């Protein structure tokens, strides 16, 4: 017998069922379901507040957490971008040790 886990928040469960796989990412549906469930339980217990995720990539997990929020709660996401390190573009005689970060 197989059982489908649910967070208990309609918007989150809809996204997990249809949408989660459309967003590129590494997080599992199971982890998002469990975190959604925890956010629902916290809300039921009167614990309110915003959420933050460091390392959102393209937002697969972040969207699920944002859909779990209530009125006045906010979702903050931080994504780091790869930057290419390039040598100083000045002539070879330049003695500086500058490197240029290009997004
Ligand atoms: C396992 S992936 C999960 C990505 C995303 N949460 C998802 O739903 O697919 C972890 C992400 O965290 C980022 N990351 C790791 N360490 C970080 C740091 N110190 N600061 C910012 N981002 C970081 C990585 O670049 C990667 O995109």
For the structure shown, list the relevant keywords.
103 residues; alpha+beta; two-stranded parallel sheet; two-stranded antiparallel ribbon; 16% strand; elongated; binds S-adenosylmethionine
Report on the structure:
The model has no long low-confidence stretch (mean pLDDT 86). With 103 residues, this protein is an alpha+beta fold. The longest helix is centred in the middle third of the chain and has 16 residues, at 29-44. It has one domain (10-102). The strands form 2 sheets. It has a two-stranded parallel sheet. The chain is built from 3 helices and 4 strands, in the order ααβαβββ. Helix content is 31%, strand content 16%. It has helices at 10-17, 29-44, 60-67; strands at 51-54, 75-78, 84-87, 99-102. It is elongated, with a radius of gyration of 20 Å. S-adenosylmethionine is lined by residues 25-27, 54-57, 60-61, 78, 80.
């Amino acid at each position: 017998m197989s059982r489908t886990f649910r967070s208990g928040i309609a918007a989150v469960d809809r996204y997990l069922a249809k949408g989660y796989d459309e967003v590129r990412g590494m997080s599992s549906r199971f982890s998002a379901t469990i975190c959604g469930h925890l956010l629902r339980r916290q809300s039921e217990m009167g614990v309110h507040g915003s959420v933050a995720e460091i390392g959102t990539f393209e937002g697969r997990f972040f969207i699920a957490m944002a859909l779990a929020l209530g009125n006045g709660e906010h979702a903050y996401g931080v994504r780091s971008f790869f930057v290419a390190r390039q040598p100083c573009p000045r002539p070879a005689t330049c003695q500086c040790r500058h490197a240029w970060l290009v997004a």
